[in-house]
Amino acid sequence: MRYRESTDLPFNAGALRDGFAAVKPGEPDPEEPGLWIVFRGGDLVLKAEGDVTFIEGEPPGWIVSRGSGLLIGTWHGKPVRVLEIGNGVAIPADYLAEPLLFTFFHGRLPDDLLTLAGLAQQILGWERKSAVCSLCGGATERIPGTWGKKCRECGYEHFPHIHPCTIVLVRRQDELLLIRKPEWPPGYYSIPSGFCDFGESLEECARREVEEETGIRIKELRYVGSQSWPFPGQLMVGFIAEYAGGEIVVERGELEDAAWFSDDSLPPTFSAGSIAGWMMERFGKGA
Length: 287
Ligand SMILES: [Zn+2]
Prior knowledge:
Blueprint: E1 20-22, E2 35-40, E3 43-47, E4 55-56, E5 65-75, E6 78-85, E7 95-98, H1 100-105, H2 111-129, E8 140-142, E9 149-151, E10 157-158, E11 163-172, E12 175-180, E13 193-195, H3 202-214, E14 217-229, E15 234-245, E16 257-262, H4 275-283
Parallel strand pairs: 2-6, 11-15
Antiparallel strand pairs: 1-5, 2-3, 2-4, 3-7, 5-6, 8-9, 9-10, 11-12, 11-13, 12-16, 14-15
This protein binds zinc ion (ZN).
Zinc ion (ZN) is lined by residues 133, 135-136, 138, 151, 153-154, 156.
């Protein structure tokens, strides 16, 4: 088993394996050469000649950036910066630009660099969303030493948005309850998940999501691990549960299918690097 604990999964800080040291947000840039984690709109831009990796040293001439890059920390002692380029910038043939989720699914980066890119994507997403106050439309400024922003007009303080979601592996003897969404690759299944609602505990969210999506009631709910999920900023909270009752009723608005599968004949599912895949591998056989 590649990942013993959920803390080893990509996108969790443990996957950075001590290579990364964060800086306090807003700390002055040392102006030394380093790594550039470049985004063009929703795409991560990577060097694709030889090993796929980040751009290092002086940014190449074709990069037309918005701003000078945001220092987020050091990677093995070198400054690491997030850099946004305009949507119209053409990417040369020896680079690639794709959504980070594709980079993940295709296994193009080792887990430590993938995790660093996920962190960069979350920070960039927050910087984009927090430039202007959502209450009054005023410009914001950084609250020193944090990722938080304070509105210059109304004084309201905004902090990064991390959304809790539960994800549940439901077992019935040697079967697992799986769902399929229409936008997934053909034949792919995974396990039920959903966002926490107002006034709801994680356990209540887990029970509600499973019942809403599949009509199945669960019992013996047990927390098994979590994963930061930078698409764009969820915290996936994983539970296992046992079947308590009910017949499958597929929630057609959101799902294409829901079904019980025997744990020795599972359909294609997402990578063991996602908490869904990890839970199916780690707890699918009643561990
Ligand atoms: Zn404001």
